[in-house]
From TrEMBL:
Residues 597-618 have a biased composition (Acidic residues). InterPro entries: F-box-like_dom_sf (IPR036047), F-box_dom (IPR001810). Pfam families: F-box. Residues 531-543 have a biased composition (Polar residues). Signal peptide: none annotated. Residues 13-45 form the F-box domain. It comes from Penicillium steckii. Residues 314-323 have a biased composition (Low complexity). This is F-box domain-containing protein. Residues 314-345, 526-559, 592-626 are annotated as: Disordered. Coiled coil: none annotated.
Amino acid sequence: MTVCSTSDPLAVFPPEIVLRILEFSSVTTLAALTVSSKAWHQFIDLTHQEAIYSSKYKALQSSRCLRGSSSSPADTHTYSRLFEKTESWKDVCKRQTLLASNWADRRPMTQESVLQIGNDPVWRFRPDFKRRFFVSSSHAGGLNVTDMDTGRILWRLPSSLDTDGDSVRPYAHLEYQDGMVVFDREGDSVEVWQADQEGAARGEFRRIAILNHECQTRGFQLSYWTLCVVSSQGHGFVYDMTQRPPTMTTHINIEKGAIGHLDQSEDAVIYSIGQKGYYAYNKSTGEFLGVLQPSQGTDKYHILPPTASSPSATAALAGAARHGSSHRPFPPGPPRRDSLVPLDVHSGPLPSSEHTWEGENEWGAGMLDGDLFVGFSRSGSVFVCSDWRKAIRDQAGLVANSSLIECKSDGSSFDLGGWLSVQNHHVMFEIQDRIYVVALDDRNRIQNVKSPPRASYSLLTSSAPQLAVPVSFMTLCDDAIMTTYTTLGWRQSLPNIPGNVAQHENPARIFPTKAIRVISLAPDPIGVTKDSGSSETPQTSTGDDAFDLNAQDRPPADDMWRSQAGLLQLLSMLGDEFGEEEDDEELQAMVTGLGEGEAELEWEDVDDEDEEEEEEEELNGHNETS
């Protein structure tokens, strides 16, 4: 049958054929069709809306290849609760499309939150969007469970420096999956704790196992309900975490020299062996699958450092101001488009004039996301392998499926930082005092550098240059970027919960600390959010309770007064930003204290000039690389 090119498909083809065609159409195409004619509007938005948009949502989910991808919007957990209160499958797809569009924007709309947890710097943290809390360890020891929406500590384990009972050592690495947390203890053991036990309060964990090893353990990783532990002495251990107690299922003989970084898929585990690259093994049989050697790749790109100037003292003041005592200590800031700096990826290797690294290159963190594998090196190079299974077969497979991104770095932050995150066609890593977020194409390859469909960008790791220290954890989420963030904190009065060590009240003290920074890219579902720019009064008309700032969330008057006094102290230290003489030696001493012991800046409380000084908290300053 011959069909005229101008014929309406709805009049020519049966509904089954039209529906099949629409399965391959984008959500934006569907939206365009609904306004093209009354017939298309009737067909898509009324008669077949549920079938079309539910199918489209499932297609979007399956194409992302994310761990724990859900089949229904009710099971999709986001920081912003973007998919709550949706009225239809069409509404779900609309929010998905707006979210993807914002991620792709060269200057995306964002809202920023900074959460200080207690009075100790955060070391590692993990978000749980289903239970709405953060689990975190600290430089000083201890484990905290903090409400994601209020910032209140729900439950904690004390530091091993404070008690001989159940406790967590300083600089403890932790892994987390759906109510189960694993952290290391002194020696070569890891502890396994579980939430949601009978009779337990929200956020309370109870220990279910201690896993001992007779060799030096360097790192561990939990996902797919499997715990993989690695030793530098040539041993790998695989545990089934669905069993009670957890049961070791495989002992793998691996290449010696593992540095502690590892990641896993459903059937394989990949270990970093430093200068030798990444070694892959089957989790069930222990079979050696092959090695990824990034240095053998030939396809090279590079990123030059952003030319934007260092943050002004105004940014530092804004960061410090967020920590004033209030009902919600970390309300999201106003929507704005200047939080992320656009980043360009260029073809070819890094120009020789930009190289600052000398010596042997060592490969550290490596992460999997479906077929994609990404590795990060001491020299600041990023190995992007779109299909790691093909790449381990032979040299031709490696060359055909991998690229190298070179960045200007002297390697100084690699041992303390060197973190990486990979999700949904994005790669995040740290270079010097910045975080880079590099977008990939739909096949997880480097995008066309001349016209990339998705934007890449960078952000600073601290609220002021004087405070910059390496990031100790970062993660890409569906709707947010989360990292540790060095800024100024306020001495907090901790809640009366088990595990707290008594402290003297002295809220009038500020000090450098590492908090959790959340940059939300969630779109406004009803489309009324206004961009505050960089200086306007905050606008918060988003229609979402999670973004609603009202009078009761602002600090009381006396806390506002304390904030201003503290900020004036900070302003004097950062006076060079305002054309005054530079005097940041005291602030630099405090920053050094993040690794060697805490030093604090005090200011006088005029209401009680004789108030006793709080005893300085001693931090264990040893460096831990997971």
